[in-house]
Write a structure and sequence with these properties.
Length: about 140
Amino acid sequence: MERSLVLIKPDAMKRGLAGTVIARLEKGGVKLVGLKMLHLDEAQAKQHYAIHQDKPFFSDLVRYITSAPIIAAVFEGENAIEVIRKIMGATDPAKAETGSIRGDFGLDIERNSVHGSDLVETAREEIKLFFSEEEIFSY
């Protein structure tokens, strides 16, 4: 059983899309096992996006993800990362398929509504940034 972190980003939160995003993921076959709403501070955002710290868009990314509350969620299932990434669609909404979360709701490459882990190892580290083991409920 694989787990993935999903973040419902500020643009989706501001447009009231949290329930829709969660429902699409659940309908896609992954199970919600952890959920919380939070407002990231700059230090947390920098830690989460550390892989991008040397890229020119890093500051904008940190500013955006800290601009409003987000929802952090953990989903699990067989091939959860692959399943979730397909449901989310391409990072750039202009290239994402219609019917995917980003294709239907993403505004641009930064404000693309959701984040999902890309690899099993990344998922483990990302989940630890947002959740303790006691906050994840497998059933």
